[in-house]
Design brief:
477 residues; six-stranded mixed β-sheet; 25 strands
């Protein structure tokens, strides 16, 4: 169970000036706990402390930064079930999905601990012409400085970890704003870091509403902004970030292709998972599904049967697959998008109904590509299905989107696999699995309206550092 209340963390220390932020149990709708809410003054102080911590953290030996991360790994393993249950309550995440996220949290910190001690530079021979004879160069990466992080509600632990862990690995102090609907995961990470005797100012975790978060984006003392959330909010933040480096993982409406030669039962199982795990509240959930004409009629009943069998209910029940959406307003929005598509000619193959904060696992066919259920990010348990006869045309349809995060392609044709990799306009192409597949060391991010930059520990570490060059003139050679 959650504690009765939680502090925020300012310059490594817990602070309890109020209990103003209510965190609800997303299944019952009741207040589950209360969290201290940071003020503008608190955020300003936290940024000031991060600036003070910059030099000392930058000079901390790599093995000590790795030790910090290993401490977190150990404590997360010890608190595994507590962390999983907290996700069930604050995010409405079914317990099996919640345990999966805690496992990924641990993986993320493990990877960061390993990378912290194998960070390397490069030797550069500079004698490319006569004028540079006798010169050589060496590069190393140095921390960029204080970082600002804003994490989303749907993976409260692991998406915060994808910012925190690489920052520790390279030696960047940070201030983090967790989603106000799901702040507990990030606060538990902060509580774990606070168990160590760290130089003051290395970290601050400050829950605050969107209206009070301006300094996270506009303060010139911050050198990098890493934001995960909606594309609408992300691009607005980028426009206000000034000279700050900005990396963003935004939304998607992921496309998935099933070619004529695919293993249909395997594909149906994986697509059902990819479309409906944690109630579709993932930016790489399967939203647009393209089935080859030759297998369309055989595949549809497999998908409908599997979706209809998914159990909705209490996230803490081991049998639950579909938990509540993050808010009733989101459920109402999805219900209205389904209705709009049906009025426009779409057919509901299964699901399509809402009950409070729950939406059925839903498949539609014959929706227009311009319908919101196809063109926008649904962020719920809803997918739309289309036919195709030509593989290249299916690729074109996947690309017919303002998003480009990840795509999935089920095929046994190696030429089709490489064609998809070369031609799909997305940050990642997953062959013989769903776009929802992610391992925490891989480069993850999108193109077009899906964002800028890549997460995945080593890639985030690159964003949080800058190259520093040493040029040596070997006088008297």
């Amino acid at each position: 169970m959650l504690k009765e209340s939680y502090p925020f963390y300012l310059a490594n220390e817990p602070r309890f000036p109020n209990k103003d932020l209510e965190v609800t149990n997303k299944y019952t709708g009741e207040v589950a706990t209360r969290v201290a809410k940071a003020s503008q003054k608190d955020i300003d102080k936290a940024i000031g402390w991060s600036v003070k911590a910059r030099k000392v953290f930058r000079k901390m030996p790599a093995y000590q930064r790795a030790d910090i991360l290993q401490h977190c790994v150990k404590r997360f393993q010890e608190r595994f079930e507590e962390l999983a249950v907290s996700l069930c309550i604050e995010a409405g995440k079914p317990i099996r999905d919640a345990r999966g996220e805690v496992t990924r949290l641990i993986d993320t910190f493990k990877i960061a601990a390993e990378e912290a001690v194998r960070w390397q530079g490069e030797y550069l021979p500079l004698d490319i012409s006569a004028r540079a004879e006798g010169y050589e160069g060496i590069t190393k990466r140095v921390p960029i400085g204080p970082c600002s992080f804003i994490s989303p509600f749907n993976f409260p632990l692991n998406l915060a970890a994808h910012k925190i862990a690489p920052a520790i690995a390279v030696g960047c102090p940070f201030v983090l704003k967790p989603a106000s609907k799901t702040p507990i995961g990030a606060l538990i990470i902060a509580e774990t870091l606070a168990e160590l005797d760290l130089p003051r100012g290395i970290f601050s975790v400050l829950p605050v509403g969107r209206e009070g978060a301006d300094l996270f984006t506009t303060d010139p003392r911050l050198k990098l902004l890493s934001f995960t959330g909606s594309d609408e909010v992300g691009w607005k933040l980028k426009s206000k970030a000034g000279k700050m480096k900005v990396v963003m993982e935004l939304g998607g409406n992921a496309g998935c292709i099933v070619d004529r030669d695919s293993d249909l039962d395997f594909a149906a199982d994986r697509i059902t998972f990819g479309a409906f795990y944690q109630s579709g509240q993932s930016c790489i959930s399967v939203q647009r599904l393209y089935l080859h004409d030759d297998i369309y009629d055989e595949m549809i009943p497999k998908l409908v049967e599997r979706a209809s069998a998914l159990k909705a209910g209490d996230p803490q029940n081991e049998e639950t697959t579909l938990g509540p959406l993050i808010s009733e307003s989101d459920a109402i929005r999805i219900e209205s998008w389904i209705s709009e598509a049906v009025v426009g000619g779409a057919t509901i193959l299964c699901g399509g109904k809402r009950d409070g904060v729950f939406v059925d696992a839903t498949w539609l066919e014959n929706a227009k590509p311009t319908d919101k259920v196809s063109a926008e990010e649904v962020f719920g348990p809803l997918g739309v299905i289309y036919r195709f006869s030509d593989f290249k045309e299916a690729i074109n349809q996947v690309n017919n989107s303002r998003f480009g995060l990840q795509a999935g392609v089920f095929t046994k044709n190696i030429d089709h696999a490489f064609y998809a990799w070369n031609e799909i306009e997305a940050g990642g192409v997953v062959i013989n699995d769903v776009p929802s597949f992610r391992v925490d060391n891989m480069p993850y991010g999108g193109v077009k309206d899906s964002g800028l930059g890549r997460e995945g520990i080593r890639h985030s570490m690159e964003d949080m550092t800058e190259i520093r060059l040493l040029v040596l003139n070997k006088i008297g050679k």
